[in-house]
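Troubleshooting: if your tokenizer reports a length mismatch, compare your output against this known-good record of 98 residues.
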Amino acid sequence: AHLLRPHVPEGRHHPVFPSLAELESGGESSDFARARRLEVVLEEGETLFVPGGAPHLVVNLTDSVAVAGNFVDESNFDAAIADLRAMGVHEGKGGGIG
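Known-good structure output:
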């Protein structure tokens, strides 16, 4: 089970996480005490993979160029297309993908 207990509200496609106050109070998730924060400092030329839906914060220590993207291959292609269609409909742009 996910320690931070995200949920996806009806009609939305991105997970929503409880507030830090809710997590610390134990009201939303009694497993929060098991969660751990990782701090990583990347050096020039290094890459960090953050799984989709994982809450994260990025702080650039110097002037930086960041490249972010979503990885789509045969293992998640159908789900990615379904998400794109649903996001298009939600944003009023129709479902004209694929």
